[in-house]
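Annex B. Sample input.
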Amino acid sequence: MKLATLCYVKKNGRTLMLHRVKKPDDVHEGKWNGLGGKFEPGESPEECVIREIREEAGLRLRKPRLKGVLTFPDFTKQEDWYVFVFTATQFTGRLIDSPEGDLAWIPDRDLLKLNLWEGDKVFLPLLRRRGHFSGKFHYRGGRLAKYSVEKY
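Annex B, continued. Sample output.
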């Protein structure tokens, strides 16, 4: 079981996205993702997302907002992933040359046009609504096989 965070940093009608093109053998190769990553021992979800955004983008988040939790059964190497999804609008710092890929501020109206995981197109619109969500996404051979989403 893996625990991770995912954050969509927003500014002036744009969302910071990461084009995963730099790491060899990356399961996300060629995809656009929000930023985030795996928990380190002892971290809370908020501590993890703040650290990950600083490491991947050079930004220091203030008050990330938890929006939902995603479950990816058997996503990689026979492991289930549980991902805490955040948004953030308050931050300081300047973007760095990310070791994970190329960073870009994408207009919100264009997000769903990117090369995203199929499940991202399901939950990204939920980030705009009030309340929280929980989603379970089953992938087989890199394709979305089935999913369920609950809104709160």
